[in-house]
Design a protein that fits this description.
The complex is a heterodimer of chains A (381) and B (318). Chain A is mostly beta strands and 381 residues long. Helix content of chain A is 11%, strand content 54%. Chain A has three domains: 107 residues, Immunoglobulin-like; 106 residues, Immunoglobulins (Immunoglobulin-like, Sandwich); 105 residues, Immunoglobulins (Immunoglobulin-like, Sandwich). Chain A is built from two helices and 28 strands. A five-stranded antiparallel beta sheet of chain A has the order 1-3-8-5-6, with no helix packed on it. Chain A has a five-stranded mixed beta sheet with strand order 2-10-9-4-7, with no helix packed on it. A five-stranded mixed beta sheet of chain A has the order 12-19-18-14-16, with no helix packed on it. In chain A, strand 5 and strand 6 form a beta hairpin. The longest helix of chain A is centred in the C-terminal third of the chain and has 24 residues. The radius of gyration of chain A is 46 Å and the shape is rod-shaped. The mean pLDDT of chain A is 84. Chain B is mainly α and 318 residues long. Chain B has one domain. The two termini of chain B are 22 Å apart. Classes of the chains: A mainly beta (381), B mainly alpha (318).
Chain lengths: 381, 318
Amino acid sequence: MMRNLLALLAVLWSLALAQQYRGLALGTAYPEIGVQPGESVSLTLTLKSYGLPPGVVRLSVPEVPAGWQAVLTGGGRLVRAVYLNPDQEASLTLRLQPPKEVKEGTYRFLVRAEGLGQTASLPITLMVGQGLPKRLSLEAELPVLKGPPTSSFRYRVTLRNESDQDLLVSLEYQAPQGFQVTFTPAFSSQQVTSLPVKAGESRDLDVEVSLPKDTPAGAYGVTLRAVAGDARADLALTLEVTGRPEVRLSTKEGRLSGSVTAGRENAVKLVVKNEGSAPAKNLSFSAFEPSGWEVKFEPEKLEVLEPGQEAEVTARIKPSPKAVAGDYMVTLRVSGDEGVSESLDYRATVVTSTLWGLVGVALVAVAVLVLGFAVNRFGRR
Amino acid sequence: MRREGSPWTGLWAVFFKEMADHLTGLRMRILEVLILLSALGALYTGSQALRQTVGEDPFLYLKLLTTAQDPLPSFVGFLSFFIPLAAIALAFDAVNGEYARGTLSRVLSQPIYRDALLFGKFLAGLGTLALLLFALFLMVVGLGLLRLGVPPGSEEVGRAFFFLLATLGYAGVWLALGLLFSVLFRQPATAALAALGVWLFFAVFYPILTDLAATALLLRADPFDPESQLRQAQLALWISRLSPNTLYAEALTALLNPAVRSLGPILITQLEGAVLGTPLPLSQSVLLVWPQITGLLALTLLLFTGAYVAFQRQEVRA
C-alpha cells in the first residue's frame, strides 16, 4: 500500500517537474494569418528562456518559400543572435515580404532559435488571398442641421478604416445645384479632398456646406462618399433651411440724387425688393430729414412682400420753404418684422422757386416803363 | 406837348462817333493802361499762388479771378475799384463838355433828337466799358491757359458771363450817375467831383453808416436776445443793400464762389442735413443773385431816366 502511494507520488512529482518547463520558448500571437496579395507582413516574435543559464541564442529562418524575403530585426537592426538572461524575454520582428507577383495559397515559414543546448522552432503560415476586405465607414455626430441660408452648416463626421491595411481615402459629395461642400480635418484649417487613414484607425472631419443666399426654405439632402479603391461608404446629411427676408431699397431709376423745390412736394419713386427667401412682413417706411422738412410715403405700409417680388413706393419730399439752395442728405428707411431694416441716403438738391426771379424781371420792366414814359412825356424836338 | 418822330433817329451816328472818341481819346488810353497793368499784376500773382497751393479744382478760373496775394488784391478787387472810376471818367463831361465847347447846338441842329444824343452817349460809354471788360476776360482766359494749362469748363464760362453782366450793370450805374451830374452841373469839374464824392461815400462811409443806422433804427436790440440781434443784422443788411457796391459785391461772391448758398444770415436749423462745400448749379447761383443783378439794372435805368428828364427840360440854345 505504502509502496503504491510512493509510486503515485513519484509519478506526480515527475509530472510536476514536467510542468516546470525548462528550455527556450519562441512564439508569436498569431502564427497563422491571412493577408492580401502583395501585402508585406510584420510579426512580433517573443523569445524567452525558462530556467536556462544566460547565454547567446542564434536565430535563423530555415524555411522560406521561393521568392519571399524574411528578415529578423530587433532594436531597428538586422538580428542573427539574441543574448538572453535567465527567465528573460526578447522581442523580435519578423518581416515577411512577398515576391512581386505572388499567387494565392498557403505559404509556410519556419523560424528556429538555437543555443544554450536547446532548440525552439516556430512554424508560421501565411494564407495569401484570405485577408479582410477593405472597408470604410462614415458617421455623422449630428446628421440633421437647421439654419438660415446665410449661416454655415458644419457637420462633424468620423471616417473609420475598418480594414487591415492603410488606405488613401478620397472624399466626394453629391449636393443640390449651387451648394458647396468642403472637407477639413478636425482641428486643422486646411481643406482636403483625400486623406490617408491607417488600418483600423479613424479620422474626424469637419464638413461645411455653404449654400446660395437665396435658397428657398426647405429640407435639402447632401450625400457624402468616401472612396478608397473598391471600398466606399456613404453618409446622407440633411439641411433644414429656414427662410429669411432681405429687403433692398432703391429709387426706380437707381439714381440716389435729385433736385427738389423748396416749399413744394416732390415725388421720388422708390422700389422695395425682397431678395431674401421668406416673405417680409409689416414693412413700414420712415425718413430722417432735416428739421422743417416733411417726408410722406404712399403707401405708408406694406403688409407682406413675397420673396423675389418688388413694390413701388412714392416718397413725397417737401423741403422747408426756408431751405437754402444746395445739397442736403435725406435718409429714407424701410423696416419690418424679423429685423428687416434697410436705409437709403438720398441727396436732395434744393432748388429755390423762380418766383423771385420773375419779380426781379418785373422790377426791371417797371424801370423800363418809367423810362418809356419819360421818353413819351418829355421827348421833344 | 406831344412828341413827334422816333427818338431813335440818329442814335447810331452818335453812338459810333462817341465810341470812336472814347477809344482814341487820351483819357481812355490812360485808364486802359492802368487797368491792364493792375489786372495783369493781379492775375500773375493769382496764378502763381494757385500753382503753388491748389492741386485740383473744378472752378480753377474762378479761383484765378478771386485769388489775392499780398500785397496785390485779387483781379475782381481791382475791377470793382477801377470800374466806377472808368465809368465816371467816361461820363462826367458828356453833356456839360458839349456846352463848354459850344458844340451842343451844332449837333442838335443836325437831324438828331436830344433823346438820341443822350441814348447814344450812354450806350457808347457802356459799349466802351463792355469792350474793355470783354478784352480783360479774354486776357484772363489766355493767361490762364498759358499759366495753368487747363481750358475753362462750360460752367465756368457761364459764371464768367454772368459776372461780366453784373460788372456791366455796376458800370452802368456809375455811368448813368456821371451822365446825370454832367447834365445837372454846368462845370465838368463840379460834375466829376460830385460823382467821385458819391462813389467815395458808398465805398468808404456807407459800410460804417449801415451799422449805425441799424442800431439807431432798432433800439430794442438786446445782447441777450438772439432774435433781436438777428433782426438788427438783417436790417443792417437791407440798408447796406441800398448801395450799388454791396449789390455788386454780393453778386460777385455768389457767382464766383459756387459753394456760396446764401447771402444773408441763416439759421443753423436751415443747414441741418446740408452737405456743405458742394457747389450750387449755375442756375441756382444766378437765382440767388438775380435780385442784385436786376437791382443794378433797374438802378441804372432809373438814374438814366433822371438824367434824361433833366436833359429834356434844359435849355440847350445857350
